[in-house]
Amino acid sequence: MLPTMKTALTALAATLAGNALAAPQTNPQTNALPPCTNVVIPVTVTANNVVLPATTPPAFNQVSGTYNIAARYCEPANNLHPRRDVLQVLVHGITYTRNYWSGDGDPNILTGPGAPYGGNLYSWVDFASQQGYPTLSIDRLGNGLSDHPDPITVLQIPIHIEVIHQIITKARAGSLPSPANRNFDKIIYAGHSFGSVLGNGLNVKYPTDADATILTGLSATLNYAFLVPWVGNGDFLPAATVNSSKWSTLNTGYLALTNRTAFNQAFYYPTFFDQALQDLDYANRGTVGLGELESGFALPEQVATNYKNPVYVITGQHDATMCPGLDPLAYTKPYQTYDCGPSGTGTLAQTKKLYPNANYQWYAPPASGHCWHFHSEALATFGVAHNWLNWNGF
Hints:
By secondary structure, the chain is of the alpha/beta class. It contains twelve helices and 13 strands. It has a single domain, classed as Rossmann fold, CATH 3.40.50.
């Protein structure tokens, strides 16, 4: 069965069960790129970071600083669309940059090295642009072209949340750099993986920042059986030693993944992806700060009790980092794979507990792993996400 057909049938079945939404819309295929501009956003923030090594309960230390956040602002393909004042703020996960949202490339580049892989097939930014949404995809602090502060004492979850809050505040006030310097009426927060963890934390501390939230690659039940060995068995080494030509200036607390098999298992579900894209993805992998990893394990579960706007969790059915169930079909795969469980009672249904007072819904793209944006289901799932936005009035 074709992947897109499977998506439609799965979405329909989940709809009848009351857990997901209807089959996705399709994206108009165009040769035009969304008009994008690279910008730098200065932020001044203060946060209560975790004292590391962490204790139980954790102790906190206040940190402050002014940082430059690199970002890419893309106008909608039709700038007269009524959604032109509904801004999507896109926040990537660990080992990625803002390019994650553009098919692992720069949408300003049409062909050749650095161009989005597969044109618009894996580009959330392109899909959103065709639907009339402007987007702001950021390089998180300590990632990509943004400033790189101390990776242990500064680069932690609490300061990331303050940076994102500052950016959203600027967007609403019309004080982002040109050409994004207009007042945006609505903010849609979309995160992936660690970016979704940050989005959840944002909704806890600042429950009115986002008018709608899409969290991809997230659940309330981390797969510790996979994650703890993955993080702790030496697969992450100082980035400066992994690739000295690229990261020689970074503090040794900035780490890079060195195990290709672990990368494949964490982010992909065989064999529903383009092997050339996976190869490119590994070659382009970025860094992670030690403080990001340790604060993630040290902080308690974040329940967004006061967040009351729509929230949509989209996590691959076979997400190895977020779904602790063993995949019954693993014997057909080159390594152990995982499963989010059945509709209604599985991991994603249980994630509702993070949003007890919100309009919570979820969707599990079939035949997809953690980075479902780079799987065969990507374009169809972009349609599912944007249909959800449309049905919620955005």
